[in-house]
Design a protein that fits this description.
Blueprint (H helix, E strand, L loop, with lengths): L2 E2 L5 E2 L2 H10 L5 H8 L3 H10 L12 H10 L5 H11 L8 H10 L6 H14 L22 E6 L2 E5 L5 H7 L9
Antiparallel strand pairs: 1-2, 3-4
Helix pairs in contact: 2-3
Length: about 180
């Protein structure tokens, strides 16, 4: 039995330590504390001191994170799970929830075009039904290009279209705003 000495310090005997080690995986901290006549916090702290854990976290391998970053736009979550279970096995296995959570943590998001390409790739592989061109919607339009402007003067700006250069625009609008006498 553990003894409480001066200032509330608890001294564990060898039997108490063996009891904690032997029953840690089968009993709760409260049950062990009741059996030893102690508070749950004291048992929890002693178990931590002895290095006992009920669950060990499995961290993402660096290679798995790199693979996810490189392929999340072209491969769906289920297929990523299958690949991860083969290439980076872990005790509990990989689920789509693991993939989604990691993508969220890394702030990696798929666009509508990415989802469309993943779906079409899966159709081509035969894992998402057969391709039917009559029923398939057209691919989503790519995002609009960012417009760039050339400032002729502080009040006038001219849009630079694809294939145009600033020199061409300067030459074209060189007499703009000048008055002829």
């Amino acid at each position: 039995m553990a003894t409480i000495v001066k200032y509330g310090k608890v001294v564990f005997s060898d039997q108490d330590i063996q009891f904690i080690k032997g029953n840690f995986q089968t009993m709760t901290n409260q049950q062990i504390a009741d059996a030893l006549g102690l508070k749950k916090t004291i048992v929890r702290m002693k178990a931590y001191e002895l290095g006992l854990q009920r669950m060990e976290l499995e961290y993402w391998p660096i290679q798995a994170v790199e693979f996810l970053k490189a392929n999340y736009q072209t491969i769906g979550d289920r297929e990523l799970c299958r690949i991860f279970n083969k290439e980076f096995p872990k005790q509990k296995g990989w689920t789509t929830k693991h993939i989604q959570k990691k993508l969220s943590q890394l702030e990696l998001f798929r666009s509508k075009l990415d989802w469309y390409n993943i779906k079409e790739r899966n159709r081509d592989n035969g894992s998402f039904g057969k391709r039917n061109p009559d029923n398939n919607p057209p691919p989503p339009a790519p995002p609009p290009q960012k417009k760039t402007f050339f400032y002729l003067n502080p009040k006038t700006r001219i849009e630079i279209k694809p294939g145009q250069t600033i020199e061409q625009l300067k030459e074209k609008y060189s007499n703009y705003g000048k008055t002829i006498h």
